[in-house]
Write a structure and sequence with these properties.
The protein is of the alpha/beta class. It is built from 9 helices and 16 strands. The structure holds S-adenosylmethionine (SAM). S-adenosylmethionine binds near residues 55, 111 and 180.
Length: about 350
């Protein structure tokens, strides 16, 4: 079933498409200039040091591979954050009583279900707004969620959150914003600050932000998490080459590259690279350019910054947000922080 409604209340006109009952799709217009893959590739690939932004990992296959990473023995962040969510969900829901749950980079929303279960138990209902670049993943997870929860309204938001948040459809009532999975670590310091400023700008008194961030820890644990024995993270990383081939009419050959992830202790971040196995030329038709790569030359494909409680707190404070609760496991491997607008406590009624 397809129906369209233009919402005139929003200064940025947006379209709501009803997919099935209780499931709608919205495209979020970018309010800030945001580069497309052609611009990013010409900025990032042509000159050394070479890099591509991590958002291009997440086509349909990349999103499925990320989900498979979450199941690996070595990838502790998902399990750790899920356990934290399971134990704090009731408190968060009954304290905030959100009318809306808006999740940035929602993926499969596997962990978010603990919040919906807590709503169920507390007799609360909320509309869910998952925001992601991967339209297929949003559609699949939305379909599953409306089947699993017979009260849940799911409004998928297709777009790039780097394009700003002022284009989100209007929502009446209290909002709980989620940014989980340690995805904040994929931003540089400046990008994280800009993104949290954007989040703060759409938050009203009584709203909350639940932020999941990975913590600094033993580099062996970190190294293993990004170099799983079954090679799924390697496949995820190499999938970027398939995306570039498809989107830019390029001829990258994945067997000519290897996955490398290492912990840069000084910068406190995992750096993930695709490393050229040999001297090679790669034609990128959309850029009208041929890349000449030496053996061992690297393309940076992702950073994943690791935080301490103190630098997380100052990151939030700098954006005008205050830490209200900090949930962490005994081993301190992950932080789940509930933040509120400074001077405007998360509601308790
Ligand atoms: C590391 S995964 C985390 C997924 C999920 N939140 C979790 O905790 O398992 C990052 C998610 O953010 C999405 N994403 C990455 N960059 C994005 C962007 N610029 N705009 C919107 N979504 C983005 C990806 O498609 C993916 O679903």
């Amino acid at each position: 079933m397809l129906a369209y409604a233009a919402h005139l209340a929003n200064p940025v006109m947006y379209m709501e498409e009803i997919v099935v009952p209780r499931l709608t799709r919205h495209r979020v217009p970018a309010a800030l200039p945001v580069a497309d893959i052609v611009e990013d590739a010409s900025k990032g690939l042509i000159k050394s040091p070479r890099s591509m932004p991590p958002k291009y990992f997440y086509d349909e296959r990349g999103s499925q591979l990320f989900d498979a990473i979450c199941e690996t023995r070595e990838y502790y962040p998902t399990r750790t954050e899920e356990a934290l969510l399971r134990s704090c969900a009731h408190d968060v829901i009954t304290q905030l009583r959100p009318d809306h749950i808006v999740e940035f980079g929602s993926g499969t929303a596997r962990k978010t279900r603990h919040l919906f279960d807590a709503c169920d138990r507390a007799g609360e209902t909320a509309a869910y707004w998952p925001f992601d670049v991967c339209e297929e993943m949003l559609h699949d997870s939305g379909q599953k969620l409306v089947q699993e929860y017979d009260w849940l309204q799911v409004n998928t938001l297709v777009g790039d959150y780097l394009g700003g948040l002022t284009g989100l459809p209007p929502r009446e009532g209290r909002c709980l914003y989620l940014f989980l999975g340690g995805t904040i670590g994929n931003f540089t310091e400046d990008e994280a600050a800009t993104f949290l400023d954007e989040v703060r700008a759409i938050m009203r008194p009584g709203d909350g932000l639940l932020l999941g961030a990975d913590r600094v820890k033993d580099s062996e644990v970190l190294h293993a998490a990004y170099n799983d024995d079954s090679g799924i993270t390697a496949q995820f990383n190499l999938n970027l080459l398939h995306v570039l081939n498809r989107e830019l009419d390029a001829d990258f050959c994945d067997s000519n590259f290897e996955h490398r992830a290492l912990f840069n202790t000084e910068a406190s971040r995992i750096e993930m690279y695709l490393v050229s196995r040999r001297r090679q030329s790669v034609r990128i038709k959309a850029l009208e350019h041929t890349l000449e790569l030496e053996a061992g030359e690297k393309i940076l494909t992702e950073i994943s910054r690791k935080f301490t409680p103190a630098n997380l707190e100052s990151l939030l404070n700098d954006a005008g947000l205050a830490v209200q609760r900090h949930f962490e496991p005994d081993n301190g491997w992950f932080s789940l922080v509930l933040a509120e607008v400074e001077g405007a406590p998360v509601t308790q009624s």
